[in-house]
Amino acid sequence: MDLKNVLKDKDKETNDNIRKHKKPMQLRDIESRSTSKHKKIVEDFKTDKDIEKMLEDEKKSIYFKPWNKLDNGHKLNRIKKYISSLKEEYDLNENDIKKTQKLLMNACNENKLNRISDIDYNKEEGYINKIKILEINEKDGKKQIRLKLVEQKTKSTPKSKSNIDRFLKSGSLKKKK
What's the rounded Cα separation, in Å, for the pair 70 and 64? Predict the structure, then answer.
């Protein structure tokens, strides 16, 4: 028996015991998606002018989505434009504008202006027609600005009764006496 063959046989045995792990399925999916998208982008946009044109088209059409599909930053931008239109419509001073801006920005950041039913948004033109839950009232020369937020009522569910409570309520103790 040759010593080389004996060593090779031992190497094979140790290699069989070592487990090689494959890439996780999710990682393979991500890699395949990113490479296919990258190839498509490279094929579609071969020059810098093509990429600049794509970016310009994206900038022009970014606000022409339904309100609930806009990013938070885009919503804030549209709210600022709406506040400037309110300034002219209600003759707001700088203090009122700041209050309104703070109120609407906080509401947007707290996800209270996400529903389409709260905001009348024109997606064809890309601007807010009206914020339905915004109230501007004038009393004694001062403007009161507030949001009519509908608080969702939480229904309390009755606790399930324990066997002891059922036993006591049924009056089975009274029957035994």
Answer: 9
pLDDT in tens, 145-154: 888 876 666 6
Prediction pTM value: 0.58
Range of the domain at 124: 59-147
Is residue 27 domain-resident? no
Predicted confidence (pLDDT) per residue in 156-176, tens digit = 666 666 777 777 777 655 555
Report angle CA 59, 62, 66 to the nearest 5 degrees.
Answer: 170
Between CA 101 and CA 107, with CA 102 as vertex, the angle to 5 degrees is 100
91-150 per-position pLDDT tens digit:
888 998 999 999 999 998 888 888 888 899 999 999 999 999 998 888 887 888 888 876
Tally of structural domains, the chain: 1
CA dist., res. 79 & res. 101, Å (int): 8
pLDDT > 70 in the chain, percent:
68
Helix (H, G, I), strand (E, B), or coil: what is residue 109? helix
Asked if residue 125 belongs to a domain, the reply is: yes
CA distance 100 to 144: 10
The residues, any chain, with a CB within 8 Å of residue 70's CB and separated by 6 or more, are 63, 78
